[in-house]
Amino acid sequence: MNFPSAYLLVSHGSRDPRPEVAMQGLADLLRDRLQQQQGQSSFPMVETAQLELHPLPLHQQITAFASRARAEGCDRLQILPLFLLEGVHVKEDIPAEIAQAHDILGTTMQLDLRPHLGSQISGLSHLLQSAIQAVQDSKAGDRQWIVLSHGSRRVGSNQVVEEMANRLQAIPAYWSISPNLEERIDQLIQAGHRDLGILPYFLFPGGITDAIGQLARERSQRQPELNIQLAEPIGTTPELAELILALTA
Question: Is 15 helix (H, G, I), strand (E, B) or coil?
Fold first, then answer.
C-alpha cells in the first residue's frame, strides 16, 4: 500500500513578519496544486519551517511535523528548501538538521531532502522577466537592469546569479558581498547609463528589499539625472508554487 507524502517548506527565517505570511500563502497554493495533481479527497499536509529565528531548531520542527504527519498516515516527509542560492545553508546546515531529525525519528518516517528552489533556473528566469515587464515603460529599451541577489561567500554559489543575469541581459550584483549595488550603479554611470533598473532576486518583501528601495531613493535624490526603476521580488504566486511542485517526487 502506498502512503502519501507530507511536505515541509523550509525558509531562512526573518524577524520581519512578512516573509512568514508569504510562506503560509505559498503553502496554501502548493497544497491546492498537490490536491489537483493527486486527486486526494483531503488536503495534502503542507507546512512551513524556518532554519533560523524560530523558537525551535529546524530538526525539532521537522520531528514535530513528522509526528503529526505519521498520525495522519504519511510515511514520507519531503523537505523543500526555498533558498535561491546553493550556499552553506543548503549544502551544510539543512542536511545537518535533517540528520539530527533522522536520529530522533529512526525508521518511523522517511525524510527526503529535495533540490533547493534555486535549481529551477529556467522557471525562475521567467518569473524575473515577468517582474521586469510589470514595471516597464517608454524608456524600457534603454534601461540597464541589475539582478541583485543576497550573495554567498561559498565558492561557486553565485554562478547561478550570473547565469540568471545573462539570461535577462542584465548584470549581477550582491547585497552582502562585492560587487554590491552601489558599485554596480557607479560602473553603469561611468559607462554612460542614466536609466537603471534594480531587480531584487529575493522571494518576498522584507527588511533587505526595504533597504534596497531606500538605497535607490537616496541615490536618485543625490543624482537627479538618474532614473532608477525598482521591480518587485518574486512573491507568492501560482507560478512559484508550480516551480516548487516540480521539485517534489
Answer: coil
195 φ, ψ (degrees, to nearest 5):
-110, 105
Over residues 95-135, the pLDDT tens digits come to 999 999 999 999 999 999 999 999 999 999 999 999 999 99
Domain 121-230 is found in CATH 3.40.50.1240: no
Q: What angle do CA 128, 129, 135 make, to 5 degrees?
A: 95
Same fold, 5-118 and 121-230: yes
**CATH code for the part of the protein at 5-118:** 3.40.50.1400
For the chain, give the number of residues.
Answer: 249
**This model's pTM is above 0.90:** yes
- Tell me the three cell numbers of residue 144: 540597464
Q: Rounded distance, CA 66 to CA 72, Å? A: 10
